[in-house]
Amino acid sequence: MTRLGKPDYFLPTTKNAAARTYNYASSLNRLEHFEEVKSVLRKMVPVARRVLGECDRLTLKMRWTYAMALYGDDCATLDDLREAGETLESVVRVWTRVLGKAHPETPALQSTLAAAHKALAARAA
Q1: Residue-wise pLDDT tens digits, 33-92
Q2: 87-95: which pairs have CB atoms within 8 A and are 24 or more residues apart?
Q3: Which residues contact 116 (CB under 8 A, 6 or more apart)?
Q4: Distance, CA of 14 to CA of 90 (rounded, Å)
Q5: Is the pTM of this model over 0.85?
Q6: Angle formed at CA 119 by CA 118 and CA 124, multiple of 5 degrees
Q7: Would you state the pLDDT for residue 13?
């Protein structure tokens, strides 16, 4: 319990709060509300990295979703596309090291990275 008498899971620095934020951002991403996704995750990813750690699966999924919002937006700039690619490359590296190539979500992550590279190549051409 916190000093205000509320359970700890209401604090924004708990895994439960990070999971709620990820679920919210993921839903917004599926609805193609990319600006909202970017806004939410720009604030929460640093918190997740600090509280949960760089190698935590939830932190990695939040970064994955953020990158998808960056390159999925029709108004994405070249810098957004580069950031998406760099973020996904970093996520793939850590994901593979921590969870392994045999993890069931690894092919989807690699597919997302390929799509981000394709979007960057199309925009740069």
Answers
A1: 999 999 999 999 999 999 999 999 999 999 999 999 999 999 999 999 999 999 999 999
A2: 87/63, 88/64, 88/112, 88/113, 88/116, 89/113, 90/63, 91/60, 91/63, 91/64, 91/67, 94/54, 94/55, 94/60, 95/60
A3: 67, 71, 81, 84, 85, 88
A4: 24
A5: yes
A6: 100
A7: 65
Instruction: State the pLDDT confidence band at 9, using cuts at 50, 70 and 90.
Output: very low
Please state, in angstroms and rounded to a whole number, the distance separating the CA atoms of residues 75 and 55. 31
| 42/62 Cα distance (integer angstroms) | 10
Residue count of the chain, please give it: 125
